[in-house]
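queue> pop job 88
queue> type: inverse folding (structure -> sequence)
queue> payload:
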């Protein structure tokens, strides 16, 4: 586990917060759709449930992944089926049943969730509430697959320490060979179902060690070695709801996560085929997670886009709220502001008083880290600071990023080229005869005294590059002097402005998001409305876009045939004289 995750973690019991999202996957048949339910939203226990209905009715298979958090083959495989569309039949997919344990990469920090499936309705903890939700979903299903990664390689005979009857990896598990449905009297042969699937899948596996075997735990028998399974999800599904239920275990000893996921997919697909659940579009995407940006609001003001490798600068006691993680995955994401909140701090307000780090995870994999740096801008900090040398400037009061900041002598203020700023004053206030000069800036061009306090500075248009420290227009000094003596200063470092995304609404309905250099193909008969231009500038409201010389701003609408005169049309984004990004519109059929 990452060292930063080993601290004590505070959790709270939160009543289920349910968000239901409906996505229509096909309009050709009214039943073809996906329903997305979110329980315990924006907490470390967030539970996402996907109900996928096929174009034609049929059986319902439930997939549970991540009920034990250190088994990625199961939850990453289940995650792929949340995006599936079906020709026939239905899926209920719970990719991450125990998100909290997944983030920690532990089997069950508060006890094994797969030992809580009794016939009692317990409602004491969040884990109990999640189990109650899973039990209800099981009651709506015709079949259940519970996806795991197990130790070693199961084999009915003892071969060696890693391959024997006490191991679980590479097996399909049932609680008995067959059972009788007490309602219908039908005998359900679990072993035959599993063995048929295993025989089909093993054709694709050349390594004998990796081939699957059927594992009958004989859970209900008096001499069973696995009596603990009587509190498992599969035993609950079989004994209470009388549906075929199987555990699917890839081996933890396999050389890669990709291989674990592949084996799970083979087994799931074979079971789906047997149960008459016919897919339209299976998916497989195992790219490494990649952070694009965070959307951050400081003190409730206009959100900023903070890209990876950038950092957040705030004043002491400022409140931050991170409302969105943009990455190459949508599910399994969490965000942890160290020493604040709990494991998932997304969309929550936190008042920050000291430097910290924001960790961004997909499941338990940290794939982004954004530093938060606090400018020491309170009088109490000034009182704690060692007294400056007599007659020197201790700090500068600056207006930038929508608030007043206090920059100590020698500090660097990081802005985006195009952000506005103003030097207000110096501290101590009683220093007389001090001139504050922003090198490269002229406040009054008719009468330049070198005193630059009180002037609005447009960092894109008002600075002369030759006065920058690096001669490249990246870092400019601000110098306080008294006569010929320099008595203090700070630096202003400018990052390049960048387009974060463009949100367009097509024909008043479909919404598309384009990042820098992205392109979209549209028809000449389409119309577009500009919903949002987002950049890394503090204030993106002044940014406009231009298509073939015609300017559009947020809220503007127009027809494509009026805007796009070429096969490949460039949209450029401007802040004053700066071009800060481009996207492209291609005309369909041209």
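queue> result:
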């Amino acid at each position: 586990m990452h060292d930063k995750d080993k601290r004590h973690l505070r959790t709270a019991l939160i009543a289920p917060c349910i968000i239901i999202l409906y996505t229509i996957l096909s309009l050709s048949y009214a039943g073809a759709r996906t329903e997305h339910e979110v329980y315990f939203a924006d907490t470390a226990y967030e539970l996402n449930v996907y109900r996928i209905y096929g174009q034609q009715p049929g059986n319902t298979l439930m997939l549970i992944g991540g009920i034990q958090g250190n088994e990625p083959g199961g939850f990453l495989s289940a995650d792929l089926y949340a995006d599936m569309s079906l020709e026939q039949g239905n899926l209920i997919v719970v990719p991450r049943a125990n998100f909290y344990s997944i983030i920690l990469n532990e089997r069950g920090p508060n006890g094994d969730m797969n030992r809580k499936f009794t016939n009692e309705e317990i409602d004491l903890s969040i884990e109990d509430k999640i189990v109650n939700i899973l039990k209800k979903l099981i009651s709506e299903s015709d079949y259940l697959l519970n996806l795991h990664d197990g130790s070693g390689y199961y084999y009915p005979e003892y071969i060696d320490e890693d391959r024997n009857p006490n191991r679980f990896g590479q097996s399909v598990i049932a609680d008995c060979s067959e059972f009788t449905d007490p309602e219908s009297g039908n005998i359900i042969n679990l072993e035959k179902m599993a063995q048929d699937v295993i025989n089909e899948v093993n054709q694709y596996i050349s390594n004998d060690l990796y081939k699957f075997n059927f594992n009958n735990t004989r859970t209900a028998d008096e001499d069973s070695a696995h009596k603990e399974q009587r509190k498992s999800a599969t035993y609950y599904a079989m004994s209470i709801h009388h549906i075929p239920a199987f555990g699917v275990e890839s081996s933890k000893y396999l050389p890669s996560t990709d291989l674990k996921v592949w084996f799970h997919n083979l087994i799931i697909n074979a079971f789906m085929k047997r149960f008459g659940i016919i897919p339209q579009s299976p998916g497989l995407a195992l790219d490494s997670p990649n952070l694009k940006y965070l959307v951050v609001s400081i003190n409730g003001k206009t959100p900023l886009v903070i890209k990876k490798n950038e950092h957040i600068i705030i004043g002491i006691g400022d409140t931050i709220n991170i409302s969105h993680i943009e990455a190459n995955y949508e599910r399994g994401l969490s965000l942890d502001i160290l020493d604040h909140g709990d494991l998932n701090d997304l969309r929550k307000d936190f008042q920050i008083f000291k430097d910290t780090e924001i960790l961004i995870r997909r499941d338990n994999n940290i794939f982004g880290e954004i530093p938060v740096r606090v400018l020491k801008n309170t009088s109490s900090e000034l009182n704690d600071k060692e007294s400056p040398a007599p007659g020197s400037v201790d700090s500068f009061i600056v207006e930038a990023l929508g608030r007043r900041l206090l920059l100590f002598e020698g500090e660097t203020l990081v802005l985006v080229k195009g952000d506005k700023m103003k030097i207000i004053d110096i501290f101590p206030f009683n220093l007389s005869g001090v001139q504050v000069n922003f090198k490269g800036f002229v406040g009054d061009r008719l009468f330049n005294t070198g005193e630059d306090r009180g002037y609005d500075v447009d960092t894109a248009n008002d600075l002369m590059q030759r006065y920058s420290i690096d001669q490249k227009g990246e870092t400019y000094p601000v110098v306080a002097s008294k006569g010929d003596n320099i008595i203090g200063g700070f630096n202003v470092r400018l990052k390049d402005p960048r387009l974060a995304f463009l949100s367009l609404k097509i024909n008043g309905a479909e919404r598309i998001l384009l990042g820098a250099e992205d392109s979209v193909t549209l028809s000449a008969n389409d119309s577009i409305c500009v919903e949002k231009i987002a950049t890394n500038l503090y204030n993106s409201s002044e940014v406009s876009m231009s298509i073939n010389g015609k300017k559009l701003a947020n809220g503007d609408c127009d027809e494509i045939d009026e805007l796009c005169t070429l096969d490949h049309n460039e949209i450029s984004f401007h802040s004053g004289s700066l071009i800060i990004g481009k996207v492209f519109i291609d005309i369909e059929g041209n």
